[in-house]
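Student: Please help interpret what follows.
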Amino acid sequence: MFQRRLGGVIAVMALAAAACGPGASAGPSTGGSTGAPPSQGGTASEPATSQNAVDVVDEIGEPEGELNLVIWGGYAEKGANDPAYDWVTPFEDETGCTVNSTDMTDSNNGVSLIQGGQYDGISASGDATTRLIQGGLVSAIDPTILSNYANVFEGLKDLPHSTVDGVNYGVPHGRGANLLMFNTEEVSPEPTTWDGIWENAADYKGKVSIYDSSIFIADAALHLKTKQPDLGIDDIYQLTQEQFDAAIALLEKQRDEGDAQYWSLYNEQVSSYAAGDLVIGTTWPLQALLLQADEVPVKAVLPEEGSTGWSDTWMLYKNAAHPNCMLLWMNHMMSAEANAEATVWFGEAATSPQACEAAEALSAGHCDVQHATDEEYFSKVHYWSTPQENCADDDEATTCVTQDDWVAAWTTLKGG
């Protein structure tokens, strides 16, 4: 059960500064999820790099006094939503880096914000990491310079969406599944499949809740993979034109027959479910936890077909103004205390045994509930990934629909 209580004083592990020199469509907000004050100033610095096939950041310099982040909502809490959940203040006190953050609405928005050059780093999902790496927007790092990296579960290291030729481009934050959430008083019997938002969407016309992002096309592909195996869908993010067209047709049917309602920020969906305006749809665990804490009768499940999901990575912007503060933040977010708070708050799997132990004080059984070490559970979760023309494989005979085409099709779908 989700519990809101402080599990003790948060400790932040300090990093020894290395002996090197001192260090978007919108700018970072000081009034967002962190409520951070203005910059404390500081001398500009850059982390040292070593030259192999690529420049790899392998040392940490003096912190610059400020940190500007692009985040998923709920990834940089400072106690504004619940005083028991504040992993930003201990970081600021320990490092002197004032944290400012801007919530992204989806990965497309997050990539756009980073391209604007005003941020130091991002909590990127797999449908953004490939674009950021291929676009030269993020730095390769040696994760062993971060003291908490050694504790991370081996299964979360060197993942393909954040590693190229053995070179790491970030460190893990947490992972989870996009779940089916429904109002238990309005939806009966309790669903065990995704049928309620597809074939049966008309039964809940106007009250079907859908994530407003082109990546949701993959959810349609996942459903078709089960319902229409003759389409030959293997990777739900790498679709041929025929497979893609079938997914769009399914989404159009959902839009028209179910009068689907689209959400981009988690608090939008929470408010709509609480008001009774929505009764079934795709969600993150965070929304279910918040609604259940307020005694709204909802339940969230991983359907039989599996689901899409995320494995998020903290990444350093290539031309960050405050790279050392970002590296310190990356280490902080792998600490037992910060990772426990963040993953309990959001409802996702912690990244280390130490974080699981700390999470137990906040929410008993958290790592069991979120399947932190359950690889069989996560084998049913298809992590967000970037659609690519080469289908992300070596088969030159087959081409797939590109990321740009996914975005264009989603825009047309929403405008239709």
